[in-house]
Amino acid sequence: MAPEIQTNGGSLSEVTGDLNDSFEYVGIGRAVDIWSTGCVVLEMLTGKKPYHYLNHEIQIIYHQGSGVPPRLTPEIQQCELTHTFLNNCFTIDPLQRPTAKEILQDPFANIMPQDYEQDV
After folding, report:
1. Protein kinase domain spans which residues (predicted)?
2. Whether the model pTM is above 0.90
């Protein structure tokens, strides 16, 4: 879950309009999908869910709400393409997180199997 879901998700300040008008919800956008993409890729690479090293759900909620991204394994940290891609996906500020178009242009998203010899 992207950090902004917990910090912005349910607050009344994120809803605009008055009682006589229709309400407009603002605050959570497509950047959440980029965070989720990072989570899916991380789980596919490691076989473990993000934050698997935390014992209790409340710890996960705390880490996410505090803006602490999931830890990357040493193998992922050693692979520059993978490390950069995931770090971009896990950018804490949703306004600084790459767009879907930018993610699709990332070298990691354009790796051809024959070009990639490392096991990460």
Report:
1. 1-109
2. no
Which residue reads 């935390």 in tokens?
54
How far apart, in Å, are the Cα atoms of 51 and each of 14, 40, 83? 27, 12, 16
The tokens for 44 are 């596919």
| CA 73 to chain centroid | 16
Domains belonging to the chain, first-starting first, are: 3-109 (1.10.510.10)
Per residue of the chain (120 residues), give pLDDT as tens.
Answer: 677 766 554 443 444 445 555 544 446 789 999 999 999 999 999 999 999 999 999 999 899 888 899 999 999 999 999 999 999 999 999 999 999 999 999 999 988 776 666 555
Question: Any bridge partners for residue 25, and if so which?
Answer: 15
